[in-house]
Amino acid sequence: MAKMRGVTVIDTERCKGCRLCVVACPLNVLALAKSVNRKGYNYAETVLADTCTGCTSCAVVCPDGCITVYRKKEE
Question: I need a labelling partner for 48 at 20 to 30 A (CA). Which of 7, 40, 58, 67 fits?
Answer without folding.
Answer: 40
